Structure formats: structure tokens, C-alpha cells
From TrEMBL:
SUPFAM superfamilies: Glyoxalase/Bleomycin resistance protein/Dihydroxybiphenyl dioxygenase. It comes from Stenotrophomonas maltophilia (Pseudomonas maltophilia). PANTHER family: PROTEIN YJDN, PROTEIN YJDN-RELATED. This is Glyoxalase/fosfomycin resistance/dioxygenase domain-containing protein. InterPro entries: Glyas_Bleomycin-R_OHBP_Dase, Glyas_Fos-R_dOase_dom, PhnB-like. It comes from the Bacteria. The lineage of its organism: Bacteria, Pseudomonadati, Pseudomonadota, Gammaproteobacteria, Lysobacterales. Gene3D superfamilies: 2,3-Dihydroxybiphenyl 1,2-Dioxygenase, domain 1. Residues 11-133 form the Glyoxalase/fosfomycin resistance/dioxygenase domain.
Length: 140
């Protein structure tokens, strides 16, 4: 079993996934817009969607090593809600780099710093309203 975070956006999925790819050092490996979705099971596909949403992202996938992050644009995808994405990294330098990259244009709730459980830990909300934690754990 594998758990894969899926983020919802309101028209910013393409931009956000490119931002995350750069910040996290990954690559967007697939992206499909609503206008490109084929009809299925006799339904007309997305042809009946409002014209201004046809170029929104129906599915996007970002890969960072063996980790996967998925996203799409869709109705009701505004706030980050009660879900936070946690990024565990192996070095202090990587923690500081990832935190700074994700915080660019966002809001820092807890600056990245040493804690009793981590060499570095911090919390932020990125420029797209998604909450993140960055961890470089101390080994027991």
C-alpha cells in the first residue's frame, strides 16, 4: 500500500505543481487538462463544463524520487483545510533549502529551527494556501 497526497486547487494546479517541482527537486511526470479528457461510459466527457474551466488541470502528478504528489483543479478546492503535507529530509541543508523554497511568497507560521525532536523543523503555508511542515529528524 502507498498513500499519495492529492491537492485540490481553483485554477492554479499547473502553476503550483511547477512551483513544487522546483522547490522539492522533482519533476511533473503527467498532466491532463479537462478539455483533453476523453468521453467514458457513454458520457460526453468534460465538453459540458464551463468554457473558462476547460484549460484547468484534471490531473497532475509530481515525482520526487519514489515519492508522489498529485493535484487537480476542481470545485470547492479553496482552502488547505486540516491537512498538512510533511516533508522529511536527510540533512539540515536540505531542510533549510526546501523550507525557504516553499515559503517563497507564502506565510511562515513557525520559522525553521532546531527542536527537541528535529535538527530542523518549521511550518508554513505556501503561496497557494497549502500548509506544509519540513522536518530533519534527530535519530534516536
Amino acid at each position: 500500500m502507498k498513500l499519495i497526497p492529492f491537492l485540490g486547487f481553483s485554477g492554479q494546479a499547473h502553476e503550483a505543481m511547477a512551483f513544487y517541482a522546483k522547490a522539492l527537486g522533482g519533476q511533473v511526470t503527467s498532466e491532463m487538462k479537462y478539455r483533453d479528457m476523453p468521453p467514458s461510459d457513454g458520457s460526453p466527457g468534460c465538453n459540458e463544463m464551463p468554457a473558462d474551466t476547460l484549460d484547468h488541470v484534471a490531473h497532475s502528478q509530481l515525482e520526487i524520487g519514489s515519492a508522489i504528489l498529485m493535484a487537480a483543479d476542481g470545485p470547492g478546492a479553496g482552502e488547505g483545510g486540516s491537512t498538512t503535507i510533511n516533508v522529511d529530509v536527510d540533512s539540515i541543508e536540505e531542510a533549510e533549502r526546501v523550507f525557504a523554497a516553499l515559503a517563497d511568497g507564502g506565510q511562515v507560521q513557525m520559522p525553521i529551527a532546531e527542536t527537541f525532536w528535529a535538527h530542523r523543523w518549521g511550518m508554513l503555508t505556501d503561496r497557494y494556501g497549502k500548509p506544509w511542515m519540513v522536518n530533519c529528524m534527530k535519530q534516536p
